[in-house]
């Protein structure tokens, strides 16, 4: 573990979306920043979401008007700044009169259309479901509205890349194990989780963006009491072979007041979730339970002609959201709003702790937190992220970029080029550097998955394990056989072993 500075302006603890966003924002304002993540970037909540950039239509039921307005405004900013990993998605909401009256839904959609300015997205409308609908015949009417899809893990990676480009150090597999104040600074011990080696640094401030571990950082690392209570809410998802061929996603209402999304996913699949239930265990060990599987299958089968069973599930995942404990009665009613707590005794180094939040408002949260932080750094620069494309996002739309790349890389198969555009955007140029034919990409580990991409991810995006590559940097694990995964695992072990020998 090597460090650039003896004294940093800021240590960010946590490599999820909030931590990466704050690191990027602060580094762009001229602060010397180091980010410490005990596992891989986006390895917890931030890679286990419903993959949506949305205002949160259902939050209107809980009168979260400010949150929805802010999220809707952020939706437009993110669609503009990351067109490679975020794009518009239409949603269909079947009407079930005994659950929510049509008038109530129309009023909600009117607010959704007008609480913030829409630039790229179409407004809502009423629709009728005909014989061609994938829904059961009993469902005749519904509504349609717009939101956005996001590759959540890549959103984290791109923010980390943005932070690095502004001078920040990104340390993965690096755990903060002790932090104490002394002489106006924080004295911090970091530990390499692979080797166990430790190193001490000094920093003028800390941001606790540890997500589900935000409270344990106080208890275990700082030996103090958390200033706010959080409520851990588990959200689980299942992935099944695609149950309809329409481009639209569906938002399903359930008898218990919860909603479930059915989203077209990675071309061949449907992503179904989420569940929203209290969680009391270790966030690192969260998994879907049988009750959640049954719940998601049942609500899907209530709505769609194509019926699914547990045997159809190709993958499940669960995430724990650290939400502010607002004493709401049910898990789905807990606010998704964010808050941050500032602890800055006179003449002592400040600590800012992040509580709650949702992926759609990460940039606004980061900006607000860094605004507060900059009160302690009077020479820091101005806010900048609202109009700054994320790495690879400096283009107008995917179709135009794909056409441009087709001319430049005519030897690439169209499906592979399309995936590169939707994963790397203009960073594809870096991945394909010094290649002029398909054989230059090296060994093919699975269909459309070559050695050049693996090396790019290892060398540029902090990828160290197979899971990092096939589930977070990409979603290629959905398309790979066990044998192909085993071959890739062996390749990566050999690669890192050779590097270790070369260094020694």
UniProtKB/TrEMBL annotation:
It comes from the Bacteria. It catalyses: a quinone + sn-glycerol 3-phosphate = dihydroxyacetone phosphate + a quinol. One of its GO terms (molecular function) is glycerol-3-phosphate dehydrogenase (quinone) activity. The keyword Cytoplasm does not apply. Pfam families: DAO, DAO_C. Residues 9-329 form the FAD dependent oxidoreductase domain. GO terms for biological process: glycerol-3-phosphate catabolic process. GO terms for cellular component: glycerol-3-phosphate dehydrogenase (FAD) complex. Keywords: FAD, Flavoprotein, Oxidoreductase. The keyword Oxidoreductase applies. Its cofactor is FAD. Residues 385-491 form the Alpha-glycerophosphate oxidase C-terminal domain. InterPro entries: DAO_C (IPR031656), DAO_C_sf (IPR038299), FAD-dep_OxRdtase (IPR006076), FAD/NAD-bd_sf (IPR036188), G3P_DH_FAD-dep (IPR000447). Its EC number is 1.1.5.3. Belongs to the FAD-dependent glycerol-3-phosphate dehydrogenase family. This is Glycerol-3-phosphate dehydrogenase.
């Amino acid at each position: 573990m090597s460090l650039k500075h003896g004294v940093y302006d800021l240590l960010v603890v946590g490599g999820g979306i909030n931590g990466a966003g704050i690191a990027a924002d602060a580094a762009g304002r001229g602060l010397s920043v180091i980010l410490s993540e005990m596992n891989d970037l986006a390895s917890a909540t931030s890679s286990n979401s419903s993959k949506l950039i949305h205002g949160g239509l259902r939050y209107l039921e809980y009168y979260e008007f400010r949150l929805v307005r802010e999220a809707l405004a952020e939706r437009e900013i993110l669609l503009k700044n990351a067109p490679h990993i975020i794009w518009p998605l239409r949603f269909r909401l079947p009407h079930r009169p005994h659950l929510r009256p049509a008038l109530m839904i129309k009023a909600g959609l009117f607010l959704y259309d007008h609480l913030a300015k829409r630039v790229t997205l179409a407004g809502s409308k009423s629709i009728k479901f005909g014989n061609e609908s994938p829904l059961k015949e009993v469902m005749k009417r519904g509504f349609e509205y717009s939101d956005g899809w996001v590759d959540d893990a890549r959103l984290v990676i791109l923010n980390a890349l943005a932070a690095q480009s502004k001078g920040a150090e990104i340390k993965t597999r690096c755990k903060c194990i002790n932090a104490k104040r002394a002489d106006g600074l924080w004295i911090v011990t970091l530990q390499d989780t692979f080797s166990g080696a430790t190193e001490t640094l000094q920093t003028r401030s800390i941001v606790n963006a540890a997500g589900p571990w935000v409270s344990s950082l106080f208890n275990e690392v700082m030996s103090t009491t958390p200033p706010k209570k959080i409520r851990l809410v588990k959200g689980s998802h299942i992935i099944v072979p695609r149950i309809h061929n329409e481009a639209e996603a569906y938002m399903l209402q359930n008898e218990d007041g919860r909603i479930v999304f059915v989203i077209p996913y990675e071309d061949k699949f449907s992503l179904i979730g989420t569940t929203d239930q209290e969680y009391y265990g270790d966030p690192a060990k969260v998994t879907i339970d049988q009750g959640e599987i049954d719940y998601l299958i049942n609500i899907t089968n209530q709505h769609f002609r194509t019926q699914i069973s547990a045997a159809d599930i190709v993958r499940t995942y669960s995430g724990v959201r650290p939400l502010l404990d607002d004493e709401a009665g049910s898990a789905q009613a807990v606010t998704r709003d964010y808050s941050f707590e500032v602890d800055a005794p006179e003449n002592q180094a400040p600590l800012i702790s992040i509580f709650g939040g949702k992926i759609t408002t990460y940039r606004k949260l980061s900006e607000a937190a860094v605004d507060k932080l900059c009160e302690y750094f009077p020479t820091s620069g101005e806010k900048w992220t609202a109009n700054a494309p994320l790495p690879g996002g400096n283009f107008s739309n995917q179709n135009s970029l794909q056409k441009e790349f087709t001319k430049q890389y005519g030897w690439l198969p169209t499906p592979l080029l399309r995936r590169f555009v939707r994963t790397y955007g203009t960073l594809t140029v870096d991945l394909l550097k010094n290649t002029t034919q398909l054989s230059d990409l090296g060994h093919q580990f699975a269909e459309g998955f070559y050695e050049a991409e693996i090396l790019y991810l290892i060398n540029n995006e902090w990828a160290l394990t197979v899971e990092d590559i096939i589930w977070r940097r990409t979603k290629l694990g959905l398309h790979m056989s066990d044998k192909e995964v085993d071959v890739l695992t062996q390749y990566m072990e050999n690669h890192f072993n050779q590097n270790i020998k070369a260094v020694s």
